[in-house]
Design a protein that fits this description.
Elements (H helix, E strand, L loop, with lengths): L1 H4 L27 E12 L5 E15 L3 E14 L4 E12 L5 E10 L2 E11 L7 E7 L3 E5 L6 H13 L4 E6 L10 E7 L25 E10 L11 E8 L4 E7 L3 E12 L12
Length: 285
């Protein structure tokens, strides 16, 4: 069961109608930052067998709307069961996505109880917007695959959700490829976007060191359901659901990952905004 905890982790690091915004055209600019979240068991439902979860997630976003974005994340959890067993999972993920969502590189590894458990690495690319996506994996095995052109990469997905929220859209459906699940998985995501939280909403949340910048920007409550590709039409339950308060600059608060049997809650404890590299004239976006 501890392996299940890591499935949503890479997705923590989201397009209106049949098209979606890319970082090449979107007005949304993400703020480079380093955020620390404390993790705990939010709810354990009947039959889960989970008695406690504790851990920490450290997320870092660097780059710019010109050069592209790098996401680094470490997601560590200690899960205890009602039977008395304990499992420690340590997931480390690093991805890079260029400014026009044409190239995506990923490297993810999981250590479970101090033993290497999984390692996935590779890159994906498309020749032009809307073109077929080619994926080349180097780990766990070398192989290639093709994905349909409207598949989004992680930063592209995040920007699409923010653009939809600012446009007043309440529902967004988009396929997502983030390199997780040994690089084979494409998720059919359905994002539900709540009513905008106006400027000042951050002041109603617990005080967090470095978070004062969030006082001046709006946010939206977001819930994203991740389905096996093609299963959402069959009214199946999602693999997991991720909910959070998403600020206009790409910072998240009040995280919750719902696996059906249990929920992990993530509370922002510290954030540091990093230097922004300005776009220069003629630099690609």
């Amino acid at each position: 069961m501890a392996g299940t905890v890591t499935k949503a982790s890479v997705g923590l690091a989201l397009a209106v109608g049949a098209t979606f915004a890319t970082s090449a055209t979107a007005a949304t600019v993400l703020a480079p930052h380093r955020a620390v979240y404390d993790l705990k068991l939010g709810e354990s439902r009947t039959g889960s067998g989970v008695s406690s979860i504790e851990g920490r997630m450290v997320y870092e976003l660097t780059g710019s709307a010109c050069e592209g974005y790098t996401q680094n994340m470490r997601f560590v959890t200690r899960m205890s069961t009602q039977q008395g067993s304990t499992t420690v999972s340590d997931l480390r993920s690093s991805t890079w996505e260029d400014a026009v969502a044409a190239k995506f590189k990923f490297n993810t590894s999981t250590i479970r109880d101090n033993k290497p458990a999984e390692h996935t690495a590779g890159d994906a690319s498309r020749a032009a917007s809307g073109a077929e996506v080619k994926v080349d994996l180097t780990k766990p095995v070398k192989k290639s695959q093709a994905l349909k052109g409207q598949t989004a990469f992680p930063v592209q997905h995040s920007i699409a959700v923010l653009e939809a929220a600012k446009a007043g859209t309440t529902k967004l459906r988009l396929d997502l490829y983030d390199g997780s699940e040994q690089g084979d998985k494409v998720y059919d995501t359905v994002s539900s976007i709540g009513k905008a939280i106006p400027k000042g909403g951050n002041q109603k949340l617990p005080v967090v060191k470095g978070a004062e910048t969030l006082d001046q920007i709006p946010a939206w409550p977001i819930s994203i359901s991740y389905f096996e590709l093609g299963k959402e039409k069959e009214d199946s339950v999602p693999v997991y659901e991720l909910s959070f308060v998403f600020f206009e600059n790409g910072v998240s608060r009040k995280l919750a990952i719902d696996y059906g049997e249990f929920v992990i809650q993530g509370d922002l404890k510290e954030i540091k905004f990093l230097d922004v590299q300005p776009c220069t004239p003629g630099q690609a976006r």
